[in-house]
Amino acid sequence: MAATRPARRSVAIDATSADTKTRILDAAEELFMEHGFEATSLRSLTSAASVNLAAVNYHFGTKEELFQMVLTRRLDPMNQERIELLETLEREGGSRAPSVERILSSMLIPALRLARDERRGGKNFLRLVGRAYADPAPFIRHFLSQQYAGMILRYKEAFLKALPHLSRQELTWRLHFVMGAISYTLAGTDAHKLFAQVAASDKENDELLLQRLAPFLVAGLKAPALGDTRKLELVSGD
Amino acid sequence: MAATRPARRSVAIDATSADTKTRILDAAEELFMEHGFEATSLRSLTSAASVNLAAVNYHFGTKEELFQMVLTRRLDPMNQERIELLETLEREGGSRAPSVERILSSMLIPALRLARDERRGGKNFLRLVGRAYADPAPFIRHFLSQQYAGMILRYKEAFLKALPHLSRQELTWRLHFVMGAISYTLAGTDAHKLFAQVAASDKENDELLLQRLAPFLVAGLKAPALGDTRKLELVSGD
DNA sequence: ATAGAATTCAAACGAGCGTTTGAATTGGGC
DNA sequence: GCCCAATTCAAACGCTCGTTTGAATTCTAT
Questions:
Q1: Is nucleic acid strand D under 7 Å from B236's C-beta?
Q2: B184 and A187 in contact by Cβ < 8 A?
Q3: Staple partner for B136: which of A36, A195, B60, B152, CB 3.0–4.6 Å?
């Protein structure tokens, strides 16, 4: 299946086609976010991008490869920025490990910047990522795990130093919860409708959201380890 | 479209067909969880259930209605149990409001019970719910929000009394984060692969998971409100 | 035993899907 | 001005989808 791909674009991969490719990527970002991967047809996608139907297969190979390109285009720089921010933090602190607050901030700030930058897809893209996290399609899951593995490992080490009372396993779970809250929050949009009211204006929304999310996550991360306090009354309410 | 539905099942809605209907619901639960709504075809579904292809349309009308039935079958009793547990808690406490820990427990216990009960779909079903939360399909979002609205409102009131330092709006956000961490955690399966290690055996997994999730969430809920402490160093790391 | 309703079944419908093809068109280097 | 590769295009291929149909079958109440 993958072997029968055309030999056409074998000579020059990137040429003058940047415009068509970008138009496809932009339309894909929006439509994948709105309808999901499966429910977005290449016909509606190419129509929205004002390009020929065959252009997707010509420039990206398959629909799946297009999807991965949509994610890579913005996730790679964002995760790169996260790691750089974290390393700056560690360098500045010298021998003293950075605080939980600062480490978490270095995770959230690049996401916030991306959300604010309309030229880079803005909120749309982050919602797309949040949804991709919950997509059952195996190729999406494999792609995301490999895409995030390095960054998460890096942050796990940093958090371990800032939270010495947590075992490696305990921290793995907590980072899992943190990623869950972040993904879910970023996937947002209609999820807000589960609750009654939403925030006021639209511009302050992003920043306020993260300023509310951060204290919640910091407190959760700093919580005593399992077994440190009484076992928590999880068994039957009487 | 909805008007052209057959007049066949107009006389008796539930008859001896329970067996076929149940087989369809069980197969749907598993396949929707594994592949998502869009990617699950009625042909593979009816084949797995060993029923005729037309049986789904005959018993449930459309594929969407089947999906809603899959969710309703288990969500209704679970949310009912949650509310009853919460009301018991409030009745027992008399005038004193229940603690955050106990309120949260009354949310998690019914989910945990359901996860343990293989006859009611077990973990499969909770993963399905977790994924449904992130599904972009409008009919799923509308259904879920109406399905949870009552329960969430009920719990918001209870949490408000237990967390008097939080404004209603602040709590709305925190409950949003809580639901995010829960959904994401329950959707689990491959999400675990994002991280290195997983828990040991398989039976203790569920309980251990919730026993780890609960302290995290309690600490997050109890965190000081925005503005109570310094604004948290979210802006640039220097 | 039989009438009538409920259910099952095989077959087909029309539509939409991702992808491929080969010809037409474009655009830069000689 | 011409050539050749890169790109665009209209059309089609083969396939799968959700749903409908009408006959065959099973079930139930008389």
A1: no
A2: no
A3: A36
3-state secondary structure of A113: helix
Identity at A176, one-letter amino acid code = H
In this predicted structure, the answer to whether residue B53 has a pLDDT above a threshold of 80 is yes
Which residues in chain B have Cβ-Cβ distances shorter than 8 Å to A169? 197, 199
Q: Rounded to an integer, what distance in angstroms lies between the CA atom of residue B166 and that of residue A55?
A: 53
CB contact under 8 A, A210 and B133: no
- Is residue B227 classed exposed, middle or buried when 0-12, 13-18 and 19+ CB atoms within 10 A define those classes? exposed
Find the DSSP H helices in chain B: 18-35, 42-49, 55-60, 63-93, 100-116, 122-134, 138-162, 168-187, 203-222
Cα B137 from Cα B135, distance rounded (Å): 6
Q: Are A175 and A163 in contact (CB under 8 A)?
A: no
Higher pLDDT, A196 or B113: B113
Instruction: Record the pTM.
Output: 0.82
d(Cα A38, Cα B193) in Å, to the nearest integer?
A: 23
Complete DSSP assignment for B178-230: HHHHHHHHHH-GGGGGGSS---SSSHHHHHHHHHHHHHHHHHHHHSPPTTTS-
Candidates B109, B131, B113; CA nearest to B190 is: B131
Check the CA dihedral A113-A119-A124-A129 and report its sign. Answer: negative
What is the average pLDDT across B39-57? Answer: 96
